[in-house]
């Protein structure tokens, strides 16, 4: 039995086909032709039909590869799709987009977010987040107030992945826990709040909400014919890209934590109770089990290496890292201005304490700076009431450097586990299998996730890094709006 996961990102689409043991049989990718259809500064839009065309190409590529392995597309039992968190589009009665979608990073709805914030105190307190312009609900309100001629024709408000689900099944009125969070859905009571009425929004355009992995419907005959799939193939509810990326690491049990370090850092862990962050930098998604996925996304990450070094030279600098650590340099290597996790500070800027004139030391110090930030984030999660185990499941571009993994394990004083296959697409495939093959997400991940690297802390480094981290934390408190422990 096979499962197809489809990842809809900012720049393109990726698909992956695997079996119930996590063995990958086919993959496909397609970059978007246009990353932004808006000409206005600070606004980010995309045409939903571009998403669909990319998805069609990816599915076709996956099916062609699958046939070459001697397997048939009709063996695919379930499909799940993820999308970027906070991206929305309004559809008319014919299920056609009324305008291009507003992307997650479109911040035009700042005034609407502030308006919602004035009325949403109870919901924000309950859910442990603060509405901001990146959320989906302020975007819907912006369209209502600034483009009433569009809003009046709206019959469906859909998220990025919902649109593809609709194109595959004809069902546009269902979404998942994860996508619904930034649209204002009350995950604790599992209902759309009265806040929608207070804002004058038509609640009939908002979708029904189900757990990720639960079936929405089977694919249409047209889609079955086009891709060679069975008409019995189920399309299950997906989630946001960060949610399924965490699932792909196998971090699905209470106390498990996934640290995804690519361009930026995403940290998510499983908690029994819904936790709240007084500083507003973290929030919780809901898992199908009823447990919660707590965490946030930082602006710090692997991008700092690209800012200072040529990517082609990374391998050379990696070879010299172990000879110069610990560097004793303290830094917070932000790209640009502002931080969103594990603290909120729109004016935060990068800093460096120490001599980085030697490029080898500079390179290693950047790795250490990200590792200190990762430890700070994990300690912040503990400060909020979360339990953090001795193992951290990790993925992202930073895992391509064994030296960086060793630094991180030693700074955190924890074991790092790197999965064989990672990314949002494989996370979607695990979700697809969780309800259609296995009895739970935990069971699916247990069978489908394997690990290619397990990195232990280096004991000669842990004590030194503990002292350096304490210096780093003191520097954070002096420079940023950090909640003092």
Structural commentary:
With 485 residues, this protein is α/β, with parallel strands linked by helices. The chain has helices at residues 48-68, 110-119, 121-127, 136-146, 148-151, 160-169, 177-181, 195-198, 221-227, 241-248, 303-308, 314-319, 359-383, 402-412, 424-436, 441-448, 459-479; strands spanning 2-8, 12-19, 24-31, 45-46, 76-83, 88-91, 101-102, 156-159, 174-176, 208-210, 215-218, 234-240, 257-261, 265-271, 283-286, 292-297, 330-332, 351-353, 391-395, 415-419, 451-455. 36% of the residues lie in helices and 21% in strands. The relative contact order is 0.13. It has a seven-stranded mixed β-sheet, with helices on both faces. Strands 3-2-1-5-12-11 form a six-stranded mixed β-sheet. A two-stranded antiparallel sheet has the order 4-7. The chain is built from 17 helices and 21 strands.
Spatial ordering of strands, largest sheet? 15-16-14-13-19-20-21
Q: What composes the largest sheet?
A: 7 strands, mixed
Cα-atom radius of gyration: 22 Å
Number of helices: 17
- Can you give the mean pLDDT? 96
Question: How big a fraction of the residues is strand?
Answer: 15-25%
Supply database-style keywords.
single chain, 485 residues, alpha/beta, 7-stranded mixed β-sheet, 6-stranded mixed β-sheet, 17 helices, globular
